[in-house]
Amino acid sequence: MPLYNKLKEYRTALGINQTEMGKLAGVSRQTISLIERGDYSPSVTLALKLARICQVTVEDIFIYEEDTL
Amino acid sequence: MNTRKRKSPSIKFVIKMLVWMLIGGILGFAMSWFGGQADNVGQFFAVIVKSTQSAMIPLVTLVTVSGILFGEIVLKKIKQIEERLRYAEDEECDELEYQEEYIGAWGLNGSNFAMALAILINSVGYSRNYISGSRETAFRFMIAVVIFVVCFFYEGLWQMRYVKVIQSSRPEFSNADPSSMKFQEQWMKSCDEAEKEMIYHSSYRTYLFLSKVIPIFLVAAMLSNLLFDTGMLAIVLLAVLWIMTSMYYTRSCVNMRKKRARG
């Protein structure tokens, strides 16, 4: 799926590690790591939670790029 | 652009059926030859059962001791990884958690393998003919059963200790009680969405695997009954298992659809 994200950038800007981010979002560190690596697409609820933690919109963190034909 | 003409599904199906018929013919030919050797094969298995019966105690002891040693090594390694995880950076955590999962999977499989092997060894002596054969065989069987119970207790406790180690670093799983019959459900409740997805994927792949393997085993059980008169029980059990697996899966799908339809 052509879904990219800038979660790592926003998390680093907040000065927190994956474990702390996971605690704030109510998920495990592994899940944050999977999202950052693009190996897992979060649910809408989790995407909204992450955006709220980073104080940005969901579209700021997650970018959907359709294939150019 | 792909210029190759795509075959229609019905032609594909006919080709597949022909290939399977050919394989079936070859297997049938092989089995008819094998059937001619039935007496030799029967004797071969009788020798294996006899030698396993006489070596039951050392074999169960070996399985139990190996299981204990393997379990302790695995648990020690997992504890070391857990200790490193406490102070690891994010990138290192990914690698360490993979190692933990990998070693833990070996540990769990080893634990279940030891229990299955212990059952298999004990089952060769679990016959009225053998037990009532003489006082010595009955005594030997009793000792093997005691060792087998020790093996089961240890492996059961090992799995609980493994869960406790994981829970020490992941307190969100502390609500799951490994001694409870509902442990798997409790564990699942504590998982987040990505972990649940991983479990669902693995479960579905297991279902697909079983729905391929069970019919193959069923055919093998039918052939062994045809050639060696091994009895109907294995065939009946596998057939029931096959039906139950399929029914349970479809029932679960229907229930979910019903829930969604009701909203």
Describe this structure in words.
Helices cover 57% and strands 9% of the residues of chain A. Chain A has helices at residues 7-14, 18-25, 29-36, 44-54, 58-61, and strands spanning 3-5, 62-64. In chain A, strands 1-2 form a two-stranded antiparallel sheet. The radius of gyration of chain A is 12 Å and the shape is globular. The two termini of chain A are 16 Å apart. Chain B has two domains: 53-174; 185-263. Chain B has helices at residues 9-36, 38-54, 56-87, 90-125, 128-131, 135-169, 183-190, 193-228, 233-262. In chain B, helix 3 (56-87) runs parallel beside helix 6 and helix 4 (90-125) runs antiparallel to helix 6 (135-169). Chains A and B meet through helix 3 of A and helix 4 and helix 8 of B.
Supply the key terms:
A: two-stranded antiparallel sheet, B: 263 residues, mainly alpha, 86% helix, 0% strand
